[in-house]
Amino acid sequence: MTSVQTETTGLKAADGHRFDAYRATPAGRPLGAIVVVQEIFGVNGHIQAVTRRFAEEGFLAIAPALFDRTQRRADIPYSDVAAGRALRDGLKTEQTLLDLKAAIDAVGTAGRVGVVGYCWGGTMTYLAACHLPIAAGVCYYGGGMTRHLDRTPKCPVMFHFGERDTIIPAADVEQIKKAYPLGHYYVYPADHGFNCTERPSFDPSSAALALQRTLDFLHRHVG
User: Which residue out of 46, 160, 192, 221 is catalytically annotated?
Assistant: First the structure.
């Protein structure tokens, strides 16, 4: 792993919207780039830690503040799911894809770009794989993904689910597999949000295994 430099930088989407992003730059030449897509709680401490972790592996990593269109510098407590959902529901999918495209462009000088998203960000990663110029996507427990299965990813995609996740039941996982059989699917003995150290559902062993699989996948397809 390498040391990293972090900063908050400004981005501009194609429709003129200006927003922030948390950026982590590795020492030396990046292997490629990773766009980290937030949960419904904002670019909080957890998402920033995840972004730094990818930079430690040698990737130029960036986490765009997708809620800046509805509330700037949003940092929603994990206990206030309703507030996070309200900010998410105030966005249009097309707007969020514009913001993700701006983030992809911002790190594109590093080489190929992968996208990794969590919860709502997992679903947006699926959509990014369908519509944006990326080399790979990794979707962690993407709730609501079944509403978008009429779209097909144009790059390799890996999926992580928890078998005890009541938000994404096993039937939904099977529906996603049927719609996109080319995906790489893993199910863990865990609940929704098992990767997040700040949630009661955090499962260290499942998170570690999912991260190793994710890194192997990204090194194979991104750099």
Answer: 192
The whole-number average pLDDT for the span 16-25 is 98
The total domain count for the chain is 1
Of the residues 46, 99, 119, 155, which is catalytic? 119
Let me know if 155 is a catalytic residue. Answer: no
The domain containing residue 166 runs over which residues?
A: 4-221
Q: Is 130 annotated as catalytic?
A: no
Q: Is 192 a catalytic residue?
A: yes
Report the CATH number at residue 191: 3.40.50.1820
Active-site entry in 68, 99, 165, 191: 165
Condensed to tens digits (0 to 9), the pLDDT of residues 66-98 reads 999 999 999 999 999 999 999 999 999 999 999
Per-residue pLDDT reduced to its tens digit, 123-150: 999 999 999 999 999 999 998 999 999 9
The first and second tokens of residue 198, run together, are: 């700040």
Beta-carbon contacts of residue 128 (< 8 Å; ≥ 6 apart) = 35, 37, 97, 100, 104, 115, 117, 134, 137
Amino acid of residue 64:
P
